[in-house]
Amino acid sequence: xxxxxxxxxxxDDARAWDERLAWAYGLISKDPLERxxxxxxxxxxxxxxxEALDRxxxxxxxxxxxxxxxxxxxxxxxxxxxxxxxVRSCSLPDGVWGRGDWDxxxxxxxxxxxxxxxxxxxxxxxxQEWTRHAKAWGTKEGLIRDLAADTxxxxxxxxxxxxxxxxIVVRRAYxxxxxxxxxxxxxxxxxxxxxxxxxxxxxENPWAQLHAGYVLWMLDRPELPNSRRVWLTWLADTRx
Length: 240
Hints:
The protein has helices at 14-21, 32-65, 75-88, 113-125, 127-134, 137-147, 150-153, 156-170, 181-187, 191-201, 206-219, 228-238.
C-alpha cells in the first residue's frame, strides 16, 4: 500500500473523474466568490481524507495490537483502505496522484489530464491560495514532467493550455519548481510561444525579462540540460 501509487476507485473513467473533481474548476475562477466556495469544498475534502486515513491507521494498529500476522489481508482493514482511497480521490492534490501506476503510457489517454492541468493552472494563477490550501511541490514537479511529453504538445487543447502556463510562469517571480517549465516550453516550442516570450522579454518587469530570455535561450539549445548550473552560468553571463 504505497503512498500515492494505488489505483483509485473508477480511476479509468472520465465521468467518475468529473463527479469527484469538477468542483475544482472553481479554484481557477476569476470570481473571488466562486474561488471561495471551491476552497471551502477543498477544505472539507482534505478534512475527510485525513479522517479516513485516521480510521485506516486506527484499524491497522488495532489488528497489530491483537497480534494479527498479516493485517493487510483483513477484510475490515481492506475496506477501510478502499474507503480512504475513495475519499482521497475527491481532494487535491491527492486526486491527481498516481498517473504513472494506472497503465496510461500516453498521458493523453489519462482521464485525469484535465485535472492535472487544472492543478498547475491554479498554482500559476493563484499561487498564494495554492500554497495556503494545497501546497505540494513534489506533485507540481511530477505533473510538469509528465506533461512535458511530445504527445501532449501535439494535442491542440493541451498545447494551448501549456503555452498559457509557460507565459504566466515566466511573468512572475520565481517559485519552487518553476524551472521545470523549460521542459514544457521545449515540447510546445513554436511561433505562438516564442511571440509571447519575446513580448515578455521586452516587458518592464526585470525578472520577467530574465526568465523569458533564459527560456528562449534554452529553446535554441535543446541539447543543454535544464539544470541549476546552466541557469546560473547563463545568468552570470547575462549580467556581465
